[in-house]
Amino acid sequence: xxxxxxxxxxxxxxxxxxxxxxxxxxxxxGVGVAYDYHYVYYPGYSAYHCIDxxxxxxxxxxxxxxxxxxxxxIRITEEVAWVEVDEHGPEPFVHFEEHxxxxxxxxxxxxxxxxxxxxxWRKDR
Length: 125
Fold this sequence. Notes:
Layout: H1 2-13, E1 20-24, E2 34-42, E3 47-50, E4 55-60, E5 63-67, E6 83-87, H2 96-102
């Protein structure tokens, strides 16, 4: 019985799974913990990828679609531009308009950056 309560208590205080990189702040009276979420944004695909859990958010016909694996139409090669973005919530598309202005389709970095975090240049990735 005691073991069951410990498991239940641990499940209740554990953070929800997601793309959590680290937490900021401290827990005190009236103060919560804010979580940062780390994504790679692909301007040419209007897509976000969480490298920690391989989840994707892709703009499709005006709606954001959540994928638990890389969508088949997205190919990560040397020619594909990407940029890292950190968000304060699990939905990276909240700041999509800002990201799309800063990194419009066709945007390329000033110099090659190499493969995105957590990825190689394999064409099937």
